[in-house]
Design a protein that fits this description.
There is one protein chain. The chain has 9 helices and 2 strands, in the order ββααααααααα. By secondary structure, the chain is mainly alpha-helical. It folds into 3 domains: 57 residues; 40 residues, no CATH class; 80 residues. It has a two-stranded antiparallel sheet with strand order 1-2. The N terminus is likely disordered.
Amino acid sequence: MKVTLGVMAVAFPLTAFAGDGATARFVGGLLEIIGGVMMDQAVAEEQRKREEFRNQEMQRIEETNRARLQTQNRELQRKRNEDVLTAAVPNWRAIVKSNDFQAWRSRQPKAETLADVITLLNRYRREAAPAAESLAAEKEKVEATHPGWRATIKGAEFHAWHLRQPDHIKQLGASPLAADAILMLNIFKRDIAAAEAARTATHGSMSLTEETQ
């Protein structure tokens, strides 16, 4: 009989133990031990494989979740950037799709940041304004939308509001385009109306409180 343990092989002639019961029991016990060790090794190997598979699966799930989160973050940032662009340059989508803009852009420095993009778009709108369209004609367009706008922009209220605005809003006032001036005046009147409504609401609330006292 041949017993294998690891890489070692030992031959036991069964005839040598024919009359020796103690030796035969020893050999039987040894075989049981060997069998148990081999079984334990097989179980341990199976557990190792299961653990390895589980770890690989957890890693795959983690990588999938990380990729999904990165995609969501990129999409969220893209939406935020588009909202900022729309607030600064309402017709930016139409501008960037035009062939004229693409040709003009190829001659400009590369825009590295969102602020650079806004500056680039505003500069294009100023430089691309039709030469035949005079400043006087643009001012007439503003007057048609906001009668008395010249007096408005000279007033203290407009001046104080203008000082609080971010650069991309202030740049609208430097544009030769009527659309930019109209947009700036729209924003100004909207803000003033909102502030007045808030003051009215606050005053009404205070009056109601005084009457109940």
